[in-house]
Design brief:
Length: 124
């Protein structure tokens, strides 16, 4: 099992916690430490044993740190994109690096290229 770890993407700080489930799935809970709602907002990503491309021990698929950081990057790009969750639900929240103006075009391309088996948003 992956130890909890923290990292930064575009100045946004995350803590990731891995959970293994009895149905041969793994989930990763991302706490957005400097995000909206006083750091209580985040999202989760799940992978399932049927995804043969996932590294792991055969019992529970695993994501690498690089894959997890890519998930956070995709989330941030979509969050701050025009019409994204940030603009709609958290208009008072300011990006840690507001000079990053390429979120919309990059987010659109990444969504089109996404091969993630499951990704969902949750309040933590």
């Amino acid at each position: 099992m992956l130890d909890d770890f923290e990292f930064s993407v575009f100045g946004e700080q995350f803590r990731v916690r891995e959970e293994s489930h009895p149905d041969r799935a793994s989930s990763y809970n991302f706490a957005w430490l400097n995000g909206p709602a006083e750091g209580t907002y985040g999202f989760s990503v799940g992978v399932f044993a049927a995804d043969a491309a996932s590294p792991g021990n055969g019992l529970h698929p695993r994501m690498t740190r690089d894959q997890l950081m890519a998930e956070a990057r995709n989330f941030i790009e979509g969050f701050y994109a025009p019409g994204g969750i940030g603009e709609e639900d958290f208009p008072e929240h300011v990006a840690a690096q507001p000079e990053k103006t390429h979120f919309a075009s990059v987010a659109s391309q990444r969504l089109a290229d996404s091969t993630t088996p499951f990704s969902g948003l949750v309040a933590q």
